[in-house]
Amino acid sequence: MIKKKFELLVLFFILLFSCENGDRYVYKPIEFPDEIINKPNQEPTIGDDDLLELVQKETFRYFWDFAEKKSGASSERYHPNNPNKDSHVVTTGGTGFGLMAILIGIERQFISRKQGVERLKTILNFYENADRFHGAWSHWMNGLSGKVIPFSPKDNGGDLVETAFFTQGLICVKEYFKSGNEDEKTLAQQADNLWKAVEWNWYSQNKNALYWHWSPNFGFEIDLLLKGYNEVLITYILAAASPDYGISKEVYENGWTSNGGIKYPNNQYGYPLLVRHSGAQKYGGPLFWAHYSYLGLNPNGLFDEHVNYWDVNVNHSKINYNYCVENPKNFEDYGEDCWGLTSSYTRNVDGTMGYKTHHPANDTGIISPTAAVSSIPYTPEESLKALHYFYKNKNQLLGPAGFYDAFSPEYNFWVADAYLAIDQGPQIIMIENYRTGFLWNLFMSNENVQEGLEKLGFQYKPGPY
Predict the structure, then answer these.
(1) CB neighbours of 341 closer than 8 A, spacing ≥ 6?
(2) Cystine design at 313: which of 133, 261, 290, 336 (Cβ 3.0–4.6 Å)?
């Protein structure tokens, strides 16, 4: 039931979408669960399960209602106040997150199975015909044409990491539909064919490591080595899993682990960091490093000869949380229920909106809801406290596609009232993994993934979680 205090907000969005968004979206009011008043003058509360369901349902809208209209792929960003801004720029990694979100939408009955299949067909057909570079897709593409949109002057070709994030989703689609009806089996086979055509070993430059980019104009000039610890572990796992374009364990060891140099003994707040976070070795990097590679890849029970990745992610999350509780810069509202530093939109010094990689060593007073929400498998109690704080401030923070990307109580509760695919996706997915293990179970049941993990010497749990 929509309370009277939400009527102005509802009217605002109705006018916004009817005036500026044409036929792209029809506003659907947020259906808030009945709130409970425990005592007179007490804040309304919501149960944990109802809150998780609400956040998943509203965040799902990003990948369903606000997807690029022709391709069905995930828009790079969405600005409710300017819905046509970059509306045809689609993101490959974010679309991989979107594939997984659509599977959740089917399971949670936000959409029908038939609706999900039809949208997934549209997306996979688009990627089948889009520009590819030795099997890899670019970071950004035009959703109308499938042509590359350069991410930077020399980044106009294949992006192996974005391709890996997309592949995570493809493998989940394959596993979900492989035993379905004939139409669904065809979709599953298409997903399987798409990821297996990626020439992972090409991106090694015939060296014992993987590299992020290749351009038809500039070759490997960017020369960015995939080296831990950051967000790219999944790239090595999938490269090892490839039946036709696979890499050896030597590529993994020399590249990702730096032949064991990835280990790092630094300790903060009683939690060892365990791995050497690139450029952020005191407190750890932005929290998306604990999310992107682990949307399908289950870190619970996942370890190689160097580290246990569940411990890596739990400790990383708890250090980030404890830093915000300590609040050494005395930012407004930081604490047990207002925490989470990661890359997101940010407030520039002149009050305009920009983008920044937030983490404890680069803290400017900006909280990104995706940081705490997506860490819920690692920090369930702490993340639920943050979720209740965000919900308590829903008039400011909850928009048409879930919680807005970033905010700051320090600056009169400034809000970045916009969205990014790579921040919304981990929220709906990691909440589901916390609740049911759904995406972890799908991905980890894939035979090629298991073969890749075994090739690299991993111990792992095949599921169910």
Answers:
(1) 286, 287, 320, 323, 324, 358, 359, 360, 363, 366, 367, 368, 371
(2) 290
- Say if residues 127 and 166 touch (Cβ distance below 8 Å): yes
CA diameter of the chain: 70
In the three-class reduction of DSSP (H, G, I as helix; E, B as strand; rest coil), residue 275 is classed as strand
Residue 11 lies in a domain: no
Q: Is residue 143 part of a domain?
A: yes
Cα–Cα distance measured from residue 335 to residue 25, given in angstroms and rounded to the nearest whole number: 37
Residue 27 in any domain: the answer is no
Q: Looking at residue 8, what is its pLDDT? A: 39
Phi, psi for 219 (deg, rounded to 5): 55, -130
Residues 205-244 have pLDDT tens digits of 999 999 999 999 999 999 999 999 999 999 999 999 999 9
Phi, psi of 57 (to 5 degrees): -65, -45
Per-residue pLDDT for 197 more than 70? yes
Instruction: Check the CA dihedral 121-125-126-132 and report its sign.
Output: positive
The dihedrals phi and psi of 42, each to the nearest 5 degrees, come to: -95, 150
User: pLDDT tens digits, residue range 398-416?
Assistant: 999 999 999 999 999 999 9
CATH number at residue 105: 1.50.10.140
**Residue 300, token pair as written in the block:** 């619970």
In angstroms, the Cα distances linking 64 to 99, 290, 451 are 10, 25, 33
Best CA proximity match to 70, nearest among 119, 27, 117: 119
For residue range 99-143, list pLDDT tens digits in order: 999 999 999 999 999 999 999 999 999 999 999 999 999 999 999
Task: Quote the number of domains for the chain.
Answer: 1
Would you say 84 and 20 are in contact if contact means Cβ atoms under 8 Å apart?
Answer: yes
